[in-house]
Amino acid sequence: MFGKRGNEGSGKSVGAGFAPAAAPASAATVMARPGTPEILAEPGRDLGGPRQPVAPPPLAPQPPATARKRAPRTEHYYDTKSQVFSALIDTIDLSQLAKLDGESAREEIRDIVNDIITIKNFAMSISEQEELLEDICNDVLGYGPLEPLLARDDIADIMVNGSGQTFIEVGGKTIESEIRFRDNAQLLSICQRIVSQVGRRVDESSPICDARLPDGSRVNVIAPPLAIDGPALTIRKFKKDKLNLDQLVKFGAITPEGATLLQIIGRVRCNVVISGGTGSGKTTLLNCLTRYIDAHERVITCEDTAELQLQQPHVVRLETRPPNIEGEGEITMRDLVKNCLRMRPERIIVGEVRGPEVFDLLQAMNTGHDGSMGTIHANTPRECLSRMESMIAMGGYTLPAKTVREIIVGSIDVIVQAARLRDGSRRITQITEVIGMEGDVIVTQDLMRYEIDGEDANGRLIGRHVGTGIVKPHFWDRARYFNEDKRLAAALDAMDKARD
Prior knowledge:
Blueprint: H1 2-10, H2 27-31, H3 75-91, H4 94-97, H5 102-120, H6 126-141, H7 147-151, E1 155-161, E2 166-170, E3 173-177, H8 184-196, E4 208-212, E5 218-222, E6 232-236, H9 245-250, H10 256-267, E7 272-276, H11 282-290, E8 299-303, E9 315-319, H12 333-340, E10 347-350, H13 357-365, E11 373-377, H14 381-394, H15 401-411, E12 414-420, E13 426-438, E14 441-455, E15 461-467, H16 476-481, H17 485-499
Parallel strand pairs: 7-11, 7-12, 8-9, 8-10, 10-11
Antiparallel strand pairs: 1-2, 1-6, 2-3, 4-5, 5-6, 12-13, 13-14, 14-15
């Protein structure tokens, strides 16, 4: 693998990009690695003699490799690529290459690979040569075979099950991609390159790792010996253009009236929990709601891997830290939530609540940090409340059940339920208020819910968002305080008409 040999040869790591140097390196210094014979020579000449540059055959203009539908790779293609790659490693000086910016480094590599193909007389069509150039540049400077998938904005998830099998989710459906890796060593090296960018590691001694890409996409890696068939890499991709509520309306995830209701909930500083199963769009919805936080508010986010991308100017982003190889130095979500209470937050956003930190978040919501938000894995709003009780018990608290429920009722105002339906579509299925206690039972009421009416000839579910007849929700006085009562009444009235 290039990254491994590059480290041995130069003492520098080759990442996804390179910092610009004070003085750009020339092509000659990049091509000639000290102490290695020059392999790029004029045909027929002694390889040890002076290099005579050979002009590569002109290439016709081609669309980017990531934009074309690629033919399935053959063993001959991988054998050719391996030979070209080995020749490139023997020729290039990584210490000089690392001084170039990403675009210049890519051009230098393309020039050298063109020369190698010409010298070795590989029989390749122009399109094959262009794809080979792109693949090798991706291997050296980017994430190898993953680059074409990362460049596509229609892919929601990338799931790599060892070097020979890659699945992607497109339009809510999981399909197998033609992308594969040279071997498991190349896949593991790319995984290590990804996680090292956020100061983490993955190897046999630490085989599980959560990380992120520069655009915020979530990454999980589990390596051998835990993953039997080779490293398993899962990437939850974020779209380049961040979704907003208007786009969710366009996709049918919610109605315009429901979107207005969510805007008001975010605007009037209701404490919100977004509930949903895996892949239901909880983080995307949380990102949408944070757009309605006022610009002057101080917001602090706490996440396992930093995914939220808030647009406000006054945002502090915090991220947990796993233990080091000695098992020390771990910073948990609970540590972050506790610490952010001392940072004068006006709103606290927890990316995902999955343990005892829920108690600290509820305490924060109940002590002046109105408008705080978080996400929880649960399939219904009622199950969401039960999970909160369970997570508080996991923290070792010995509070009576009624006291715990009273804390929850005093802290949570609204639960927004998201779901990924069986046809692959994502919908906001319920907007539920937490209104109080009756005896030992938490009382809730739905403001909006999604009703499924059937399915069409293509198997797509047909449904509609309807109101529940609530005229004045529990947070009505809060909405009136923020001068949003008229807009709230209009939105609720429109949802009731949709039901009729």
